[in-house]
Amino acid sequence: MYISQLSISNFKSFHRANIKLRKFNVLIGANAAGKSNLLQLFKFIRDISQFGLENAISLQGGNEYLRNINLKRGNNIVGLGLKFDILKEYGIKRNTKIGILEAKLKNFYYTFKIKLNLKNNTYYVIKDELTAGLHFIEYKKDNKTFDYGTANLYINLLKNSYEINFKSKLKKIEANELFPTLPDMQKFLNERIHKSLIIESPLIYTFPFEKIAYFMKNISMYDFDTRLPKKATQFLGKAELEENGENLAIVLRKILSDIEKRRAFFNLVNNVLPLIENIEVKSFLDKYLQFLIEESFAKGQFIPSSMISDGTIFIIALIIAIYFENKPCAIFEEPERRIHPYLISKIIDMMRDASSNKQIIISTHNPEAVKHADIENLLLISRNERGFSTIDRPAEIEQIKVFLKNEIGIEELYVNNLLKL
Amino acid sequence: MPKEKIYLFVEGNDDEIFFRKLITPILSKYYKNIEIIKYAQMKKDKVNLFLLSIRTLNFDYLFFADKDEYLSIKQKKEKLSEKFEQLAKENIIIVVLEIESWYLAGLDETASETLHINYFTNTDNLSKEDFNRLYHGRFNSRIDFIYEIIKLYVIEKAKQKNKSFSYFYNEYIH
Questions:
Q1: Which of A303, A326, A349 is the C-terminal boundary of a domain?
Q2: Structural domain of residue A174, as residue ranges?
Q3: How many angstroms separate the CA atoms of B79 and A282, rounded?
């Protein structure tokens, strides 16, 4: 599953923006164009899912910094719209009064709007709507099937309550029969009406919404601090890679102890760091873990993580984040900062490769990264004449196609600030 | 006595892995240094300047290119030498169809079974898309798949299964 469309209103430097996303997305643009704000939007979504709307707003600096500060004070409505596309077919079968029904997920739409009160730092949810597109098939007793086509299940905030609406040809069937957790979910939402969002409900983790809930909660925004993995790590730590990379030794130990993962890991490391012959994780004082690297030029000699270059540590952490972490969406801000120009094309290739299994979003200023990213994956963030951030796809700008046809590279247009033609 | 240096011009990263991992070890018998230049993302003028410098320095070079949509190898060679005026036709090797065809050519039946993929007796017509359809399932990564192919690669088999690889090997290595 991945976010295939995004609409933004009044979030940070954005006023109105609507953009299609791909599985691999490279955000480019001048300094202060709004790239980081767009990445913050994904963090905001994740924070709502993990900590609730109130905390998520606070983590963005409160009402004042959540909304676009260029807007007049009367315009205090922040809104987001997300469309999710399903990559791998997924569904459930239920016994209903008409027989066995299979519901297969096709897509999700999620939209919400919050009215912010800047005086007392409170908010009021004015729109909250989640739609699941489902494809229904009935399995009859004589082994025949009947295709009911696609139907939408809506959860929608009305003036004073949440409504559940199921529009389908399955006239005899109520949504509650197919999705038994909906009444409790509705009750939960009605108790917190206008203060919380649908995605905060614990019952969102049941069919058909669990995938969207899992996606939002597990968006990862990596920002590796390479000084941290150099130090020894305590045994007691999370098995998944921390966003700052501090528990790299723990994660490496887990990967290296699994034959299949170990095999794949060394293939991928070899692609960018061919001198690395082996990596080991050692424990000491019964309390700490540290990883060591053996190079092909010095077989038998292991270099401790404290002596390994920042770039090497960064690349190892990056490979783990994109290939081995079970996260649906991985975000990196300027991941090429510590990478040699020659390796940038390989890292971009690896991200494109890994994006067949998860959505990857990066921001970059690097012309090499721009050159190798494929124009279709580029999203140009810039400010318009009113100071609002806008998002464009250079691949869809006709004038850019003419420059490209005449052998002027996308990276040259980018360096010369000519992508926004 | 090995010669000083040869430059291999290849299109992109997948080609670079193929030549670095499989061809460089063989060529190292004949050359002290083997350099690989990826030219697909380079400007025409820059490629020409690289070629000019290499020719001036009197080093050997080979220029690999996919056949792409061209009807014949001859046609593709002509197109390339028109585009890069410093490129000598005799140094061009056309990969048919694409580097993915050369990767799959080196797999024997046992290797294909190990990788859980179909066995191909001839890879002259296999495309990148055919290759991409093969690895899903057992492998989460195309790059991982490529490195597993390399571990099982048999040059002699590749010569039997892909005409363009056989031509390259027989003409330029042996």
A1: A326
A2: 87-215
A3: 56
Q: Which residue of A271, A325, A344, A358 to mutate against B (max B Cβ within 10 Å)?
A: A271
- Chain A residue numbers touching B148 (CB-CB < 8 A): 267
ipTM of the complex: 0.92
**pLDDT (tens place) for every residue of chain A, 421 residues total:** 999 999 999 999 999 999 999 999 999 988 899 999 999 999 999 999 999 999 999 999 999 899 888 777 678 999 999 999 998 888 888 887 777 889 999 999 999 999 999 888 899 999 999 999 999 888 887 778 888 888 899 999 998 999 998 877 776 677 777 888 999 999 999 999 999 999 999 999 998 999 999 999 999 999 999 999 898 888 888 889 999 999 999 999 999 999 999 999 999 999 999 999 999 999 887 789 999 999 998 888 999 999 999 999 999 999 999 999 999 999 999 998 889 988 999 999 999 999 999 999 999 989 889 889 989 999 999 999 999 999 999 888 887 877 777 777 788 887 777 777 5
Q: Which amino acid is at B79?
A: K
Q: Which residue in the set B20, B143, B148 is minimally distant from A353, CB to CB?
A: B143
- B1-95 to CATH, choices 3.30.420, 3.40.50, 1.10.1740, 3.30.2000: 3.40.50
Separation of alpha carbons B39 and B13, rounded Å: 10
Contacts of A271 in chain B (CB under 8 A): 17, 143, 147
Suggest the residue from B140, B151, B153 to mutate for an interface test with chain A (most A CBs closer than 10 A): B140
Long-range contacts formed by A169-173: CB under 8 A, 24+ apart: A169/A136, A170/A98, A170/A101, A170/A136, A172/A97, A172/A98, A173/A96, A173/A97, A173/A98, A173/A101
- The DSSP-derived string for A192-204 is TTTTS-GGG-GGG
**Inter-chain touch A271–B147, beta carbons under 8 Å:** yes
